[in-house]
């Protein structure tokens, strides 16, 4: 990850609008979430479809099992929809 | 090597000679034979390019932008409804600063259907940030495509460019074209190596959000700045072009017997050829008339126009398109370019040749007669539709 550049004038910016710090790593977006995916591991068959179908790469694959990164997960629920054994539950986020 | 080829095939040869690496293509009359010929080149192995068959022109341009983002030299061709369907992506190509080069065959828009010459398609893309050239001959189509790659891919330019030719008058008419060898073009045109591109080893986000307090305006100014630079760079590269290929490419405008003329017409594309013939006819009768042909519409050559038209008493502008509710768009722009000139000529706008209606030399001679009237008596009618059936009755009323 590269530090956010310090642009001042039109001469400093690259000619095309690019940002080269990976924007999602620099900006946690988990706060956008309304429903939180909870993976009940007792029924999980480790097929990796949730990992594969997450549009934001917010599910990581750690030692043969899925692991949700809640700093990135926006709660779209695609993983729960795709899970063939329906072991991902979408739980409403509530204020603590 | 000299070949007798159509304007369309000339564009195909230009893409091959420039080693375009990605050609997303969608057919539309009268452009289709450009991309058909490129398909032949690719399938025979003569041209090493990815030929991408897409489902629309909008997608063709999206594919061009994506390929250019990845660092590939891209080419496509379109016309009329195809071009206006691309409209959104044309803005994107310029904003993304991807130097996509495209041949556009100028054709009228429907309804009613017309496949003939008319500049409305490309003129209505004026504000997209594309460089636009209008060609008078097949040779100019070839040379301008090479020049556009040469200038537009430079790191301080990075703008897309549209090379326009009139439907059928150039696209389907065979002329002698001096086609250079690919080695000659290689020696003139370096490889496209953009600093900013899709690269897994250097991940970047392209075209992300820019809030009002961020740099949106600065990026837009960057496009304007690059246009200004491009206007100069085309002149520099024109000198290199002439030295390298042994024939002139010229500048952003072309003057024809205009330096001492009292009445001057301004025109773009193949209308200018007819107008040159008319200039000779009227000159033979001893009247001082001339022509200024705009090759570049964007960047708009205001400075060159002011210089070329400074001695004229009357200037007429031929528009092969019309801004409904106003006047010919070229007329507006030429007038605006001269507004702050120390001495302004009287000016008249001629909307002419829409939908491919023939523009005869005798018609253009008639325009010069009108301009002599304008020079003597001033402007009585600012905008006239030429060869309009019923125009005489309207004047009488």
The helix/strand series of chain A, from N terminus to C terminus, equals: EHEHEEHE
Question: What summary fits the major beta sheet of chain A?
Answer: 2 strands, antiparallel
Subunit organisation of the chains: heterodimer
Name the CATH superfamily assignment of the largest domain in chain B. Thiamin diphosphate (ThDP)-binding fold, Pyr/PP domains
Structural write-up:
The complex is a heterodimer of chains A (96) and B (397). Chain A has 96 residues and is an alpha+beta fold. Chain A has helices at residues 23-26, 49-53, 78-82; strands spanning 18-19, 35-39, 59-62, 65-68, 88-92. Chain A is elongated and about 55 Å long. Chain A has a two-stranded antiparallel ribbon. Chain A has a two-stranded antiparallel sheet with strand order 3-4. Chain A has a domain at 30-92: Alpha-Beta Plaits, CATH 3.30.70. Chain B is of the alpha/beta class. Chain B has two domains: 2-245, 3-Layer(aba) Sandwich (Rossmann fold), CATH 3.40.50.970; 253-396, Rossmann fold. Chain B contains 14 helices and 16 strands. Chain B has helices at 7-17, 32-43, 57-69, 80-85, 87-95, 120-123, 138-152, 182-188, 216-245, 271-284, 302-308, 329-338, 361-377, 391-396; strands at 2-6, 22-25, 50-53, 75-79, 101-106, 131-134, 161-166, 174-178, 205-206, 253-256, 263-268, 289-294, 296-298, 314-319, 346-351, 383-385. In chain B, the strands form four sheets. A six-stranded mixed beta sheet of chain B has the order 10-12-11-14-15-16, with helices on both faces. In chain B, strand 11 (263-268), helix 10 (271-284) and strand 12 (289-294) form a beta-alpha-beta unit. In chain B, helix 1 packs across helix 2, helix 7 (138-152) crosses helix 9 and helix 10 (271-284) packs across helix 13 (361-377). The longest helix of chain B has 30 residues, at 216-245. The radius of gyration of chain B is 21 Å and the shape is globular. Chains A and B meet through strand 1 of A and strand 9 and helix 9 of B. Strand 1 (18-19) of chain A pairs antiparallel with strand 9 of chain B, so a sheet runs across the interface.
